[in-house]
Amino acid sequence: MTQPVKRVPKKGTKRAGAPKKQPEPGDPNFDWKALYKPDTQLFRFRSEDGFVVCLPSYDDPGEGEVFGLMLLNKSESDLLVYVMRQHIIDHAKDAESLLQVTFRALQRMKAPGVIEQLLKDWPEASGKELGKS
């Protein structure tokens, strides 16, 4: 009497042991909260092409309004970048790491005008529309 032949699966066909891919900055399921200090409220922005970046929310409408008014005066771009960077750093667990992660996520957003829309929506989320008093 012959024994049944056991088939051995081909190499590389077993998927159960494959490591799960970690979400990258910009992916919708990336954990931004882990990069910020506890209790930091985050503003979540999703671009038209599906990428996500989270920035610390402004504590009060006045902070968002100041940032928004600076956006209207693009001649002060160095100051604008400094203020944005400082606001992120103030809420970060590891400032250098968070700035790099945020930059990588922003680089992945390719939709036209997406950065401009983010910079408009971020301060407006604090309760002030740009250009309105």
The proportion of strand residues reads: 5-15%
Distance between the termini: 92 Å
List unreliable stretches of 5+ residues. Answer: none
- The whole-angstrom Rg is 22 Å
Order of the strands making up the biggest sheet:
1-2
Strands, count: 2
What are the secondary-structure elements, in order, as H or E?
A: EEHHHH
Mean pLDDT: 86
Q: Structural class, judged by helices and strands? A: mainly alpha
**Treating each run of at least 4 consecutive H or I residues as one helix, how many helices?**
4
Major sheet characteristics: 2 strands, antiparallel
What is the helix content? 25-40%
The gross shape turns out to be: elongated
Give an account of the 3D structure.
The protein has four helices and two strands; from the N terminus they run E-E-H-H-H-H. 38% of the residues lie in helices and 8% in strands. Helix 1 (61-72) runs antiparallel to helix 4 (114-124) and helix 2 (77-90) crosses helix 3. The relative contact order is 0.19. The longest helix has 14 residues, at 77-90. Strands 1-2 form a two-stranded antiparallel sheet. The chain has helices at residues 61-72, 77-90, 95-108, 114-124, and strands at residues 42-46, 52-56. The N and C termini lie far apart (92 Å). The chain has a domain at 33-124. It has 133 residues and is mainly α.
